[in-house]
Amino acid sequence: MGPVKAVKPVRSTKPVQSVKQHTVIDSPYGALTLVAEDGALCGLYMTDQRHRPPEESFGAADDGPFAEAEEQLTAYFAGELKDFTLGLSLNGTPFQRTVWEQLRRIPYGETRTYGELAAALGNPAASRAVGLANGRNPIGIIVPCHRVIGASGGLTGYGGGLGRKQRLLDFERGPALF
């Protein structure tokens, strides 16, 4: 999987108005709201998700820009897709985008600790900052923040709720062999 492309802001003498659209799809984990900005996926939010932006910021309801995202999510939930190949618009600080890029490198069915992610970024003392950036991930599941666990191996915060996090991890690990 390649690196996440950072979206640079457009500079102009006139204000630039981006176009946002959204749709809601069903999933085994409840309704998912997909949000696109200028045609690129910029949000995937669960019902009652912490740090979920207000509904009025999602733009007009329109299924048009979401066919590929919906197709890949359907394949993921069916256990047929392990790596998403969608073009994403990750809007956040440079540090947040770097953390989110590291999240995309965690293989399907595996986990990493906040400390391991901080070390991978070259700053082992930044585990708390990594946790804060992880919690602000705007594209859950596709940018797999659910794959990050505490240093003790236990589940820690998840914007979609710890129950969903456990279910996603169990799903990716597959059925027990005994």
UniProtKB/TrEMBL annotation:
Domain Methylated-DNA-[protein]-cysteine S-methyltransferase DNA binding as annotated: residue spans: 94-173
PROSITE patterns: MGMT (PS00374)
Keyword Methyltransferase tagged: yes
Domain Methylguanine DNA methyltransferase ribonuclease-like: 22-89
Keyword presence, Cytoplasm: yes
Record's keyword terms, sorted: Cytoplasm, DNA damage, DNA repair, Methyltransferase, Transferase
Reactions accelerated catalytically: a 6-O-methyl-2'-deoxyguanosine in DNA + L-cysteinyl-[protein] = S-methyl-L-cysteinyl-[protein] + a 2'-deoxyguanosine in DNA; a 4-O-methyl-thymidine in DNA + L-cysteinyl-[protein] = a thymidine in DNA + S-methyl-L-cysteinyl-[protein]
E.C. code: 2.1.1.63
Localization, UniProt: Cytoplasm
Catalytic residues identified in the record: C145
PANTHER family with a match to the protein in the record: METHYLATED-DNA--PROTEIN-CYSTEINE METHYLTRANSFERASE
Note: This enzyme catalyzes only one turnover and therefore is not strictly catalytic. According to one definition, an enzyme is a biocatalyst that acts repeatedly and over many reaction cycles.
Family to which this protein belongs: Belongs to the MGMT family.
Function according to Swiss-Prot or TrEMBL: Involved in the cellular defense against the biological effects of O6-methylguanine (O6-MeG) and O4-methylthymine (O4-MeT) in DNA. Repairs the methylated nucleobase in DNA by stoichiometrically transferring the methyl group to a cysteine residue in the enzyme. This is a suicide reaction: the enzyme is irreversibly inactivated.
Name this protein carries in UniProt: Methylated-DNA--protein-cysteine methyltransferase
